[in-house]
Amino acid sequence: MSRILLTKLGSDAESFRLDDEPDRPLGPGDLLVALEAAPLNPADFLLSNGWYAVQPEFPFAMGAEGVGRVLEAGSAAGQALVGRRVLILPTYEQGTWADRVVVPARNVVIVGETADALQLAMLGINPATAYHLLNRYVALRPGDWIGLTLANGAVGQAVIALARRAGVKILGIVRREEAAEQVRKLGADVVIVDDGENLGDRVGQALDGAKLRLVLDGVGGPDVAAQLAPSIESGGAFVAFSAMTGQPPVMPLAELVYREISVHGLYAINWVWNAPREEIEKVYAELAELVEKGVLNASVEATYSLDQYREAIAHAQRPERSGKVLFAFDRPGTSS
Ligand SMILES: NC(=O)c1ccc[n+]([C@@H]2O[C@H](COP(=O)([O-])OP(=O)(O)OC[C@H]3O[C@@H](n4cnc5c(N)ncnc54)[C@H](OP(=O)(O)O)[C@@H]3O)[C@@H](O)[C@H]2O)c1
């Protein structure tokens, strides 16, 4: 098996190496899975730098999620899984930047045969995050408004797809015009390019008297919360799912207390680690069906083979990408 190992903290190519070794023997509850595709996500580089919820021990097998096919099953893992296409859940117990990987059977769910491999490979984290962002904090009704920063990112794209399907209106915020165009095409009702000037006034004007019931923020820092709070309805929710600025959001006290705007943080991996198996299977079956139907369709900028890992790692960390970078094991090649 070939796989990418993290050998020291950092996010440049020198912190990683391509490792080739014979397939590890299967334990009774294990599966051997041949990967079709696995994405490189921002969180992978938070992890490789030591800034993530999971701390790596070296050498650490990289890659949180992916899709593949079961080649072999251990004696207690269920022979019926052999030959099936499976999603590898982002538990961080196995590395998916690999052509083959040994996975405990509890860390996979079966997915359909016909959906696009790249899209399925990205299902475990971002669409699940979008699902929880939209369902956990407020009851959204058709016609309600949500606000969304990082609207052009993969989480944002999944939020837009799921919100539109529920008839919820979207005010997307991005940091450059090309991204705004992309988000308009995805179906956001209003898109604002945040240039650091008067964000709150511009959001208020764009909403034209309407209020946001939910704000989903990936930028962090005091500004976004302070600027958007006046446009959030009393009793509404503000949820942090990331902090690209490295700063926590800060909700002004009067908005928090007098208008009871609640502030939350979401880490979808806690759900993957702790949710009952039936719930995991149900949610991923629903999301996989939406991939199949083309409702969930994250932009892809490039795919690489494993031995091109240096280019892939650099590309995935390039600012202003127009989509995801993935390792693809049957069809490497840059798509744009
Ligand atoms: N809490 C959770 O459970 C959870 C789950 C999934 C993801 N996340 C986090 O959510 C974030 C987005 O993930 P993703 O997969 O959607 O990423 P992605 O597809 O790579 O998109 C990255 C987004 O971040 C924006 N961005 C990058 N640096 C920025 C900065 N310094 N200031 C403002 N915006 C910046 C990008 O804007 P440009 O296009 O303009 O560069 C783009 O909108 C990551 O931090 C990821 O770790 C959290």
What report would you give on this structure?
The model is unreliable at 331-336 (pLDDT under 50). The chain has 336 residues and is α/β, with parallel strands linked by helices. Helices cover 29% and strands 26% of the residues. It has helices at residues 42-48, 117-121, 126-135, 154-165, 177-186, 199-207, 222-228, 253-257, 268-274, 277-292, 309-316, and strands spanning 2-6, 16-20, 30-40, 60-61, 66-73, 85-88, 100-104, 108-110, 145-148, 169-174, 190-193, 212-217, 232-240, 262-265, 300-304, 324-328. Strands 3, 5, 6, 7, 8, 15 and 16 form a 7-stranded mixed beta sheet that branches. Helix 3 crosses helix 4 and helix 6 (199-207) packs parallel to helix 7. The chain binds NADP nicotinamide-adenine-dinucleotide phosphate.
Question: Can you give me a brief rundown of this structure?
Answer:
This protein has 336 residues and is of the alpha/beta class.
Give descriptors for this structure:
single chain; 336 residues; alpha/beta; Quinone Oxidoreductase, Chain A, domain 1; Rossmann fold; 7-stranded mixed beta sheet; 6-stranded parallel beta sheet; disordered C terminus; binds NADP nicotinamide-adenine-dinucleotide phosphate
